[in-house]
Specification:
Blueprint (H helix, E strand, L loop, with lengths): L4 H8 L2 H11 L16 H11 L4 H6 L20 E2 L7 H7 L7 H28 L7 H26 L23 H18 L14 H15 L2 H12 L16 H7 L6 E5 L35 E2 L1 H4 L16 E5 L6 E8 L6 H7 L6 E5 H16 L3 H13 L7 H8 L4 H15 L6 H8 L1 E5 L7 E5 L22 H6 L13
Antiparallel strand pairs: 1-3, 2-6, 4-5, 7-8
Helix pairs in contact: 1-3, 3-6, 3-7, 6-7, 7-8, 8-9, 9-10, 10-14, 14-15, 14-17, 15-16, 15-17
Length: about 525
């Protein structure tokens, strides 16, 4: 049973923080009350930090607010051409991303960038307030320490999302409280942004409790912070640091979900249906009555599913894998079998209506109760899983200490779980530990493509490795890698240096004269 105290706290109390920010950002504010007046006591501090759980970067991954386009984090992987949106004629940012033509369509793309920018900085501002003012509040020392740790995590998580999207960005560690504050900051070098992100996450690791997220009332834990820190180090190529950070997660109570069978009790179906698995490190929480999962279940099908279900009016592949992408799996991989990660046909048990498609739907997003009964999804969305921790550990250790039995064992666990023929972890480990570092690391990259595509990690991997995965159009399971810039994506477009960053919002450029645009994008 889910513990919903975070959700309730945000909805019932955290609004105060959001409303105060909204009023402050209006050109003609209705209230001149300073934002720091909302950090006067322990209750206000907790309300504001609670609000951060459902603001900014986590929303980019977790919230399916539209039937026509997925969460914001689903758009960057479309740069690879391996995933498409069937509504891209309407949702042009998806089309311009897939065709690598954003530079000539900056105004249209900018509309989405404006929302990402504003909402992330709003969360950062509230986090700054917590970090600045909670030490001055007379309250329980343990609670104060935990709230500051949570605020530092969310500040870091939002800055991490922004720096990956835009490169150098304005960096602030103080809360904007009134119109006298200097709102207009220039861009700060990426290295300095990462320094703050690392420092925040290290402190969060030190002060947050050593418990598991879903068993601890859906509050942040030491292991969530360590996982994010390992992710941050990996993104920068700091492999030894990444290995040390992820070891905290490896040594935690978290573990890989096992297969009970290779059907509906597989690990992948458990991940699809269950929220309280030890594999889940950090997730975005949903509830049927307070905050339901929006359009997530409809992303499992194509448009013809409207005749199969009566609970949703629109169905579409807003984040649909191409057949070429699905060749990343060989035929013996459990994840490509029907009703694991993907599916091609479905019969509604209530009315006998059938859906079938020549292109895969995403079974991972299928929510039986929502689609057949309630029309409201309650399935939480995973942001970090233990499977990703194992993959980080495999790559980071291979790069920092080499390929040994332990390093190979991390990757072997992922491969063995996906093997339909019962090949064991020990057998995979024996094969993998004889590989050279470069070959082993490429095996890790391939498994990241196979294990994490539905959690929107693909483009981050392209950025950090500066390599593009060429998935064979004819040979299942065969993937090679080539330098990203100059590579041809799966839609036939060629990557340019300017494709690696997104444009700064044109609205933000007009508001802040200290900002400069990323190369090749329009400024006005």
């Amino acid at each position: 049973m889910k513990t919903r105290n975070i959700l309730l706290g945000v909805v019932c109390a955290g609004v105060l923080s959001l409303n105060s920010c909204d009023k402050f950002l209006e050109e003609d504010p209705r209230s001149n009350q300073r934002l720091d007046s909302f950090y006067q006591n322990a209750a206000q501090a907790q309300e504001n930090v609670n609000a951060l759980y459902r603001m900014g970067a986590p929303v980019r991954y977790g919230v399916a607010a539209s039937a026509y386009i997925g969460p914001s984090a689903s758009v960057p992987p479309m740069l690879t051409g391996y995933f498409t949106n069937s509504y891209e004629g309407q949702e042009l940012i998806a089309q311009y991303s897939r065709l690598l033509s954003r530079q000539g369509n900056t105004r249209i793309v900018s509309n989405t960038m404006n929302g990402i920018w504003n909402e992330s900085y709003q969360a950062i501002n509230i986090a700054n307030g917590a970090i600045n003012y909670i030490p001055e509040i007379e309250m329980d020392e343990a609670l104060s320490s935990r709230l500051i740790g949570e605020a530092k995590f969310f500040r870091a998580f939002n800055y991490f999302y922004l720096v990956k999207m835009f490169g150098a960005i304005p960096l602030s560690t103080t809360m904007y409280s009134s119109l006298e504050d200097d709102l207009y900051l220039p861009r700060t070098a990426e290295e300095q942004v990462y320094e703050l992100i690392e420092a925040d996450l290290k402190e969060a690791v030190d002060v947050l409790p050593s418990s598991m997220f879903v068993q601890g009332g859906y509050r942040l834990t030491r292991y969530v912070a360590a996982m994010a820190l390992a992710n941050v180090y990996l993104q920068q190529g700091k492999y030894k640091d990444a290995a040390d950070a992820v070891q905290i997660v490896i040594d935690s109570p978290h573990e890989l979900t096992p297969n009970e069978d290779l059907g509906m009790n597989s690990a992948y179906n458990k991940l699809r249906t269950s929220d309280d698995l030890p594999e889940v490190i950090y997730s975005y929480e949903f509830d049927e009555t307070i905050s339901h999962g929006g359009w997530w279940p409809t992303y499992a099908f194509s448009s013809s599913a409207v005749s199969v279900f009566g609970t949703y009016a629109i169905f579409e592949r807003v984040y649909g894998p191409t057949n070429r992408f699905l060749n990343v799996y060989d035929e013996q991989d459990l994840r490509i079998q029907p009703n694991q990660f993907y599916h091609w046909e479905y019969t509604n048990p209530n009315n006998g209506q059938k859906w079938s498609s020549d292109v895969a739907g995403v079974w991972y997003y299928f929510d039986e109760a929502a689609l057949l009964t309630s029309g409201r999804s309650t399935k939480d969305r995973n942001l970090y899983r233990y499977a990703e921790a194992l993959l980080i550990a495999a790559e980071a250790n291979a790069r920092s200490i080499g390929v040994n039995n332990v390093t190979a064992g991390y990757l072997a666990q992922i491969k063995a779980r996906a093997d339909i023929n019962g090949k064991t972890v020990a057998e995979y480990t024996s094969e993998l530990e004889g590989m050279g570092v470069d070959a082993f690391v490429e095996e890790v990259w391939k498994e990241r493509l196979r294990e994490l595509p539905l959690e929107f990690k693909m483009w981050d991997d392209c950025l950090r490795t500066q390599q593009f995965p060429n998935i064979s159009a004819s040979e299942k399971g065969h993937v090679t890698f080539q330098p990203l810039v100059g590579a041809t994506n799966a839609a036939g477009a060629t990557f340019k240096e300017s494709d690696l960053l997104w444009p700064i919002s044109m609205d933000e450029l007009q508001r802040n004269p200290e900002l400069t645009q990323n190369p090749d994008y329009q400024e006005q």
